[in-house]
Design brief:
- This protein is elongated.
- The protein has a 10-stranded mixed beta sheet, sandwiched between helices.
- By secondary structure, the protein is of the alpha/beta class.
- The protein is built from 4 helices and 10 strands; from the N terminus they run ββαβββαββαβββα.
- The protein has one domain.
Length: 291
């Protein structure tokens, strides 16, 4: 099957009232297909108010994806907060139906992303910004059209080396080499550029990352999946014996008139060390008392 020409928009952004995020997905694709890519783009701390944009290039199920994660207020101030005043973030990108489609140059993407993302947010978010209900719970299908970067594509380099169980982390100085190598890779991968700290990398869904504070390349191990802990066995309660085995008890429980009368509480018993009132009675002089 020949891949469809062009690139289809991919938009992930919350609305003013509705807590639904998927706004546009290529026609015929399910949103869950791009969930790991969105998680890699946002990282583990997406709510940082000072977070810089991150740029992602990936091959997902044979499709090349180029996207950016950014704070919506940087692109459109009136779409930057929800009804509760919380700042919003978004992932805006494009999907090519084939893995060999050339992505844009990284510097061009960083320079033009705010303008390109603003156009997509105006197209897919603004007209449903205040809507609620089932109509906004599902994304709208996007079609494959020419991308905004036209012919300004990145030069593909040697393919990335995929290391199962690790995330290859490179410093900022190697970001262009990483982007070029990603452009020459057709195997499945996810590369993120613009990560500020190591703890923001989601190793479960990321294969390569460009770390702003890194000095030299290194491998970040992927943690093993958690081992499920079996639930403790709780035996079921024993069934109650049939009523005919103890009819008196059954009648006492089900017929109030046959319940025994409540037992009156026993009178209060005072301890031996309680003060005797006789100690405080008036004494006559000379009877040997101290009072």
């Amino acid at each position: 099957m020949t891949p469809e020409p062009g690139w289809a928009p991919l938009v992930y952004c919350r609305l003013w009232h509705a807590d639904s995020w998927w706004r546009a997905v290529p026609s015929g694709r399910a949103p869950a297909r791009y969930g790991p890519l969105v998680a890699a783009a946002l990282g583990t701390r997406p709510h940082r108010r000072d977070a810089a944009p991150r740029f992602v290039q990936a091959v997902v199920d044979g499709e090349r994806v180029v996207a950016a994660a950014l704070r919506v207020a940087e692109v459109s101030e009136d779409l930057g907060h929800d009804a509760g005043g919380r700042p919003l973030f978004a992932v805006v990108g494009w999907v090519s139906a084939g893995p060999s489609a050339p992505p844009p140059e990284l510097d061009l993407l960083a320079e033009q992303m705010h303008e390109w993302a603003g156009e997509q947010l105006d197209r897919w978010v603004r007209d449903v910004w205040t809507d609620v209900g089932p109509d906004v719970q599902q994304p709208r299908p996007s079609s494959f059209d020419p991308p905004p970067w036209a012919e300004a594509t990145a030069e593909p380099g040697p393919a990335l080396r995929i290391r199962p169980g690790t995330v290859r982390v490179v410093p900022r100085a190697d970001r262009l080499d990483l982007w070029s190598a990603a452009a020459g890779t057709v195997a499945q991968f996810t590369a993120v550029v613009g990560v500020d700290t190591v703890d923001e990398i989601d190793p479960i869904v990321t294969s390569h990352a460009c770390l702003e504070i890194a000095i030299e390349p290194f491998d970040l191990p992927v943690p093993p999946p958690p081992v499920p802990v079996p639930a403790a066995f709780v035996p079921p309660p024993e069934p109650s014996p049939p009523w005919w085995k103890n009819p008196r008890k059954w009648v006492a429980e089900h017929w109030p008139c046959h319940r025994p009368a409540p037992v009156a509480p026993a009178p209060e018993q005072h301890s031996d060390n309680r003060l005797d009132p006789e100690l405080f009675r008036a004494r006559k002089p000379g009877d040997g008392s101290l009072i």
